[in-house]
Amino acid sequence: MKIEIIAYGIAKDIINGPSLSMDIVEALDVGTVRKILLSNYPALKGLASLQLAVNEEYVSDDFVLKENDEVVIIPPVSGG
Amino acid sequence: MNDVYITSDPLDSDACTKAVTFADAGGLVVFVGNVRNITKGKTVKHLVFEAYEKMALKEMAKIIDEAVLKWGLKKMVIHHRTGLVQVGESAVVIACSSAHRKAAFDACEYAIDKLKETVPIWKKEFFEDGEVWVSAHP
Questions:
Q1: How far apart are CA B31 and CA B97, in angstroms?
Q2: Can you give the residue range of the structural domain that contains A33?
Q3: Chain A residues inside the 8 Å CB shell of B50
């Protein structure tokens, strides 16, 4: 299945755009998506942290993705 | 007014103060985070804030719920600016009130600390000679 991954902040600079699409197998977990991202975009490894959010909530690596989930790369936040 | 609000317009700390003013709330604390003109000795031209707005509003609402519950507040509001923010302008306003001052002080400090940890908003500093996403690298 295809998923769309949205990026913000420095992650947007690293992936060279506001989003990317990824072809993944059914029922893939977020940890594997993170590994794929780190391997495709090594500059992500240099960040102080790299979290993923699904449907507007932080999720842990064992969270299983389904079609049409909104996946967002959250680099270190710096609001306030 | 909304308890949680993200806007590219200037923030209104007076309106936030009024929103948490009640006859039975004797302690009212307002934190205003302004854009500083200097970072690590370098002159800051301005900042740009970017938000994952839907999730940022949710995370801000979670902070309010936690703080109201933990400190028994009357009310808390959190407003955050996005887009280009000039030196001296406000990036964030957190106002809260409680029967007595200590709860309001503690809750307000908790809210700004937690916001900096969990709310998906990013700040880019612009200097004379370049720009940098704040806290991105260790």
A1: 12
A2: 2-74
A3: 8-9
Per CATH, the number for B4-129 is 3.90.1170.40
Q: What ipTM score was computed for the predicted complex, to two decimals?
A: 0.95
User: Could you read off the pLDDT of B51-76 as tens digits, one per residue?
Assistant: 999 999 999 999 999 999 999 999 99
Predicted TM-score of the model (pTM): 0.96
Contact status of B70 with chain A (Cβ, < 8 Å): no
Number of domains forming the structure of chain A: 1
| CA–CA separation, B15 and B24 (whole Å) | 19
Beta carbons of B98 and B29 less than 8 angstroms apart: no
Query: What is the DSSP code string of B45-81?
Result: EEEEEEE-HHHHHHHHHHHHHHHHHHHT-SEEEEEEE
pLDDT confidence of residue B1: 83
Of B56, B91, B137, the CB nearest to A46: B137
A77 CB-contact burial (10 Å; exposed 0-12 / middle 13-18 / buried 19+) = buried
Considering only CB atoms, which chain B residues are within 8 Å of A8?
A: 50-52, 120, 122
Per-residue confidence band for A5, with pLDDT thresholds at 50, 70 and 90: very high
Mean pLDDT of B110-116: 98
